[in-house]
Amino acid sequence: MSRFILAEHAEKLAELNRIIDEYKGKEGPLMPILTKAQEIFGYLPYEVQAHIAEALDIPISDIYGVATFYSQFSVKPKGRYKIGVCMGTACYVKGSQLILNELIKELGVQPGDTTEDGRFTLEATRCLGACGLAPVMMINDDVYGRLKPEDIKGILDKYRDK
Amino acid sequence: MKLYRSHVLVCGGTGCHSSGSAGIIDAFQAELKKHNLEDEIKLVSTGCFGLCAVGPVVVVYPEGAFYSGIKAEDVPRIVEEHLLKGRIVNDLLYHDHAKAEDVVSTLDEVEFYKKQKRMALRNCGVINPEKIEEYIAFDGYKALARVLTEMTPMDVINEIKASGLRGRGGAGFPTGLKWEFARKAPGDKKYVCCNADEGDPGAFMDRSLLEGDPHSILEAMAIAGYAIGSDQGYIYVRAEYPIAVKRLTIAIEQAKELGLLGKNIFGTDFSFDIELRLGAGAFVCGEETALMRSIEGKRGEPTPRPPFPAVKGVFAKPTLLNNVETYANIPQIILNGAEWFSQVGTEKSKGTKVFALGGKINNTGLVEVPMGTTLREIIYDIGGGIPNGKKFKAAQTGGPSGGCIPAEHLDTPIDYDSLAKIGSMMGSGGLIVMDEDNCMVDIARFFLDFTVDESCGKCPPCRIGTKRMLELLDKITSGNGEEGDIEKLEELGNNIKASALCGLGQTAPNPVLSTIMYFRDEYEAHIKEKRCPAGVCRNLLRYVISSDLCRGCGLCTKVCPVSAISGERKAPHIIDPDKCIKCGACAEKCPFHAITKG
Questions:
Q1: Which end of chain A has the smaller Cβ count within 10 Å, N or C?
Q2: Is the CATH number of domain B6-112 3.40.30.10?
Q3: What's the ipTM?
């Protein structure tokens, strides 16, 4: 994951500063600021948290504590395409672990993480209810069934071209 | 003032919105324009009508014609036939499930509404929530005017006390008393908060109120501010309610423009401002102290009481926190008097309660009934009964904090105390109906899974205790239950209830304890016989092919993902129970219904 450098996102940084200025004088400014920051950047990078900590004179540990408490905040970036590999029983027995392994190899990320180019987020999900098509994976709303590890590259290429 | 010959009300609540009501509104606008009817017909986008099961809903006045399940394609016909030619379109009208032959033509005739008393929901489905003028036309802000010009703060508090109103968030604490505590607390700065963090799965009463009648909440909070001596209100609303957030934002702006919020309201020296604060996906922030910590910008972890919020709440100042539905009742109590309100309901539970009906019930949606209405009336008369001819098994009230109510208690009148007596609670209003095909052990596990996930993690009884309970339930539902597991659940549950720091932990064991109380036999079947009577718990299912019905067509063999079925062509096939993963694909495929699960 390439390091997020705040200075490289001038427009977003300006927007963030505008938000901070708007809420700084209010009581309990942190939640509104984090909500807007998440909207601006798509997630809450450490650098953004540090910037907010500095601006509000709050320890970064407090900011991190709040960012990781609420399920809507993410300290990791999410990709454009969310890949969900079903780990339900039927898929598991039909080799979904092999599918997952192939995806880990192809994308270079672990389940829960996102590729550097921000294109794919890999998740292991609960049963998708398509057991007749096991093993199954979904990429956003598209369902792929009866998968074999050798199918993975071809499927991913479709999304890489977009 | 413009007079229209007809009003067309289209439901703009979240449910109907998701089913395309925005497209219906656009279609009406286009058709009315096409036929030059814009000056004769008033089109209104309203809040939730309540009968969500048959949305999108459109009601045309003056007839009160109740159209249901409408699609954008139906609109031209409604405009041509009904609005132009005066002929109600019968096949688009709502048809009562219970009376298959009768065609209902007006709102008053709908069985669903007959036993309801819409007091908190009075404006939902009637006014356009984005137009303050419509709220004012229905006596909006009149209560605030009266309070500020004719009543003292203690007058207000005494009126609320006399009404008998109790908190609608679930705990049922006397509202007037809470206001009095906040008034009496020493301090120069006080806050009025609204708990709009409706987190119970299956509950959408507050959402509908915020979407359908946001001004009633604003007015009530201002009245509360006057009563306790506060000039600042906060509405803590779930981020997952975008339509509610939008309507509240518009409402606050409009109220400020007209001087009904802000400095010197109605020219008096009373000032009151309201700000929205959004949640960020934490169920525990519906707990009062966690909510206040969240507003302060902290992790939503509850804090011990005392001190109570009325004395030391948000930003360490005296704070009044009430639920959305509690506030929705305030303006009417001020306008019509405490006695008007206390005439409705039971001795200790006055007024009405809004319920969100869900699960195995025909008329899913929002209902408001006087306290004291029985569960049977709600489920059968208003709710239309259980679909597909199935048998009622239990109703869950109070969500993850509540308990299940079995058939033997169907005639219990609903009020705070009677529900607590039978092991459940009023809760915020979510009412989930279950039938014979639901497994009560699985339901208990489902709720506990939720509370374990949402636990803030601060206190050991909840953080560790509920997790251990969930592990026991996973054990039981996967076929590994042992003698003594039920007793362990009971002991653990009672200990957690007694020692957890906040309401989440204190009530998390309730679904488990109440299902054990009323459905112990199901637990025992899971443990002793390794059998799930309702046929739900996957590991305890046995799929069997009846050799009498099986024709050996082999279709099941083809769909089985794990090749567990074997047999010769035209000969009865057999499922290997060791290979079978109980996915049910074979049973679904079999054209002779030869495969059963049990």
A1: C
A2: yes
A3: 0.85
